[in-house]
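Deliverable D4.2, example record:
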Amino acid sequence: MVVLNRIYTRTGDAGETALVNGARVAKHSPRVRAYGTVDELNATLGLARLHATGETDAALARIQNDLFDLGADLARPEMEKDGEAGYPVLRIIETQVTRLETEIDAMVAVLEPLRSFILPGGSALAAHLHLARTVARRAEREAVELAAGESANPWAVKYLNRLSDWFFTASRMANDEGRADVLWVPGANR
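Output generated by the structure prediction step:
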């Protein structure tokens, strides 16, 4: 359990921070950038949820919780196993990825096929979900960069990849099941 009885510690004043396992790393390290962007994505979802209701709000709440799992995963090098930590190490797992895929498939079944690229916008919820999609893509790029140089859970990268697809599909659902999507018109302003 996390206990935060002090908000500032001054331990990061020299440009370093502690990972979950206690190791100190530079605040600009790929690992910190990756889980920092996941945190930014979670905050973006907080804004999106101001416009969400019902099943969509519940799904976004579930994803926000997953993003805390993902942040914890990225904040601990993968080579470290359960026994070393003294408790089960939290990792993104395959079922979290397949749940996103199942939900995407259910949404796509309702939508008409795309015949144009979509401009981010439409309803307030759709606009926020498009923003979440772009932040998720950046988090994915940073997680891929992390995995290229250090240990990282491959399911974490896959989760971020599916999540951006989920946000894209959910944004179409938020635009009256795609009927209110804002379509790109190539060369419209030449």
